[in-house]
Amino acid sequence: MIAKQIERLVDLALEEDIGPGDITTNHLVPADQEGRGQILARQPLTVAGLEVAQYVFHRLDADANFNAHCADGTSLEAGAIIAEVTGRMRALLTAERTALNFLQRLSGIATHVTSYTGPLKGHPVKLVDTRKTTPGWRFLEKYAVRVGGAGNHRTGLFDGVLIKDNHIAACGGIAEAVTRIRQRTSHLVRIEVEASTLEEVSEAIAVGADVIMLDNMSVKQIHDAVAVIGDKALIEVSGGITRERIARLAETGVNLISVGGLTHAATSVDISMDIQPSL
After folding, report:
1. How many CB atoms lie within 10 A of CB 208?
2. Has 126 been annotated as catalytic?
3. Which of 47, 143, 205, 276 is the most buried (most CB within 10 A)?
4. Residues 164, 182, 190, 232: which is the catalytic one?
């Protein structure tokens, strides 16, 4: 079932591309001509976004038949058929680019995420994303992160408390910030505090933070912080995370590793669509 926010996003994308009409297709292709298309992987990739791509075609031809050859999360080699679509030729040609844009971007994120999850196999640590997403695409991009094998941090500012350095500065300190937020939120809401020094870690522990984010710390500092925190709070590490050092960070004993690059540094993968008239 496609969520309402995705319906709106698809409609905006189609409106942006089509405008008052596809002048090329509408002048070249008869309205009653039928067609068939194959969506192909042009490189090794992990598929994500099939349902959205299908919805794009259905927006222009409700009777189009979208036959996926795999499921989201499937790893494919170059040349593999991702899906086949049959329906009105005009709809296939006009929807092609928008459908592929969604599929390429979301599959690109899922593929990118798998390059981070590989080095973490065997480590009891959870890899999560951040709010560094494309405006309007967050719901979809966070879905693609899950398809790639990682998890999600908070969805937005509304569903989790994260007291960052600017909040701390505005309140005059960690203790005051946590005290204020605890007075104004439900006891069911976890409170996470960002800390960049061991002194801030100790202050967060003293005031009862549920989660402590170790921000841009060295591996040695993280080891020291983990020793200080123990089981008093969940431990997240963030900032400057690369594939090359992620396994080393997992060995420090942290519970969570958050990486903004799972979304903002991902690039679209190469996917194409070959369309022919139906025989």
Report:
1. 14
2. no
3. 47
4. 164
Type of residue found at 260: G
In degrees and rounded to multiples of 5, residue 111 shows phi and psi of -65, -45
Q: Which domains does the chain have, with CATH numbers?
A: 4-111+267-277 (3.90.1170.20), 117-264 (3.20.20.70)
Distance of CA 26 to the CA centre of its chain: 36
Write the CA distances from 187 to 120, 132, 154, 184, 191, integer angstroms: 33, 28, 17, 9, 10
pLDDT digits (tens, 9 = 90+) for 164-193: 999 999 999 999 999 999 999 999 999 999
Residue in 97, 126, 131, 154 annotated catalytic: 97
Sheet containing 234-238: which strands, arranged edge to edge? 126-128, 256-258, 234-238, 211-215, 191-195, 161-163
pLDDT tens for 125-162 read 999 999 999 999 999 999 999 999 999 999 999 999 99
Active site residue 200: no
Amino acid letter, residue 135:
P
d(CA 143, CA 152): 8
Please pick, among 22, 141, 215, 236, the residue that the annotation labels catalytic. 215
Q: How many angstroms separate the Cα of 26 from the Cα of each of 13, 88, 188?
A: 19, 12, 56
Which member of 61, 192, 194, 200 is catalytic? Answer: 194
Catalytic residue chosen out of the listed positions 132, 154, 182, 232: 132
- Contact status, residue 243 vs residue 113, Cβ threshold 8 Å: no
Structure tokens at 126: 């959870």
210 is catalytic: no
192: nearest Cα among 149, 244, 228, 153: 153
Check if 184 is active-site: no
For every residue of 87-134, which 3-state class applies, written as one string?
EEHHHHHHHHHHHHHHHHHHHHHHHHHHHHHHHHCCCCCEEECCCCCC
